[in-house]
Structure formats: C-alpha cells, structure tokens
TrEMBL record:
It comes from Panicum hallii var. hallii. This is Phytocyanin domain-containing protein. GO terms for cellular component: plasma membrane. Residues 129-186 have a biased composition (Low complexity). Residues 123-186 are annotated as: Disordered. Gene3D superfamilies: Cupredoxins - blue copper proteins. Keywords: Glycoprotein, Metal-binding, Signal. GO terms for molecular function: electron transfer activity; metal ion binding. Residues 24-125 form the Phytocyanin domain. The keyword Transmembrane helix does not apply. Coiled coil: none annotated. InterPro entries: Cupredoxin, Phytocyanin-like, Phytocyanin_dom. Residues 1-23 form the signal peptide.
Length: 208
C-alpha cells in the first residue's frame, strides 16, 4: 500500500509540473528591456499585447541606471516622480497584475520619462458575454380556485360539496299549480267544485 501511495504522489506531482500555467510573463520592451535607448515606443509595445489578471509584468534594466515607479495617471501624464505609489530598483522587477484597470509606470531618473521611458499597462475587465448566462426560472402558476398558501379555508369561488355520508332521506314534496297573474287557477278550482255539486244534486233528483 505504501508503494502504491508513493507512486500516486509522484504521478500527481509530475502532472502538476507538466500542466501549463495560465499566467503569462511579459517582459517590458521585449529584448530591449526597460531603457531610453533605441527610441522604443512602449505605447506601441502594449498595443500588441493583451493583459489579464494574474499576468506578470517584468522590467529588466541595469541596476542603478534606471528604476521603476508606479504612479497615478496624472503623474504619468506629467512625468512627476515625487509621489510614487511604489518604487522598484532591483533591475529585474516582476510585478503581478491582480485586478483589471490601468497601471502606470515611469522611470524616476530625471529626464527618462520625458524621453519616453513610461508604460501604461491596461487590463480589460471580463466581458459580460464571458460570464455564464442563467435563464430566469418561470413563475409558478396558480388556478383561479387555488387556496392561498398556508390557509386551510376553502376558496369562495368553489363552495364545498355536499357530504356523501348524509343519510337523511329527502322530504316528500308536492307541487301545486301556480296561479297565473289574473287568478285563473283559483277560479278554475271553484268552477270544478260547483260542477261537482250540481252533478250530485242532479243524481239525487233522478233517484227520487
């Protein structure tokens, strides 16, 4: 088991070392480096690059001859070296890009910035189209007779059905003829009674 685990550890380390790094290292000025010689246009140099968060910007120069000052945009535009954000003097300065936006660098040696030894590193923000889109969930639908959430009362639109366990028999009903508007039903019944009485009288007379 120990041999198997050690072999797996070696394989994992090997794969990690073989995997390419997503961060890129950009040497400012390429082969010329950070200098005032050769009329290097650092604006053209940045225009040909696409920087991302995590990339490394490397300034190489003879130590003591130049330096690297990170400054504000106003100081970059005016080549002011009196209030730098950060100062680098190693001759091989590696600066990590940790956020999108602009970062401004100049050489603080008098006259060097005015001679063109300045660079504006622009890191664009991620585009909104690069972010995964999430479709909105459809709104839940409710029927007209649905009961509000948390309520046990039946909806007014749907009255409760009669109980199927009601064993009370229905009461007998009789339907009398409804009289019309002029009372014809009452007069018809009265005439029937009179006719019946007259027929009875006539029968009695014949029997005598």
């Amino acid at each position: 088991m120990a041999v198997g685990m050690s072999g797996l550890l070696v394989l994992t380390i090997g794969l990690a070392m073989a995997a390419p790094s997503s961060a890129a290292i950009y040497k400012v000025g390429d082969a010329s480096g950070w200098t005032i010689l050769g009329n290097i246009n650092y604006t053209d140099w940045t225009a040909k690059k696409t920087f991302h968060v995590g990339d490394i910007i490397e300034f190489t120069y003879p130590q003591g001859i130049h330096n690297v000052l990170e400054v504000t945009k106003a100081d970059y535009d005016s080549c002011t070296n009196s209030t730098p954000i950060a100062t680098h003097t190693s001759g091989d300065d590696k600066i990590a890009i940790k956020r999108p936006g602009h970062r401004f660098f100049i050489c603080g040696v008098p006259g060097h910035c005015a001679a063109g030894q300045k660079v504006n590193i622009r890191v664009p923000k991620p585009r909104s189209s690069d972010a995964p889109s999430k479709a909105p969930a459809p709104a839940p639908t409710r029927s007209a007779a649905a009961t509000p959430s948390g309520s046990s009362e039946p909806s007014a639109a749907s009255p409760p059905a009669a109980s199927s366990t009601d064993s009370t028999p229905d009461a007998p009903t009789t339907t009398a003829p409804a009289p019309n508007a002029n009372g014809a039903g009452v007069r018809g019944g009265y005439r029937a009674v009179v006719a019946t009485a007259l027929a009875a009288v006539a029968s009695m007379a014949m029997l005598q």
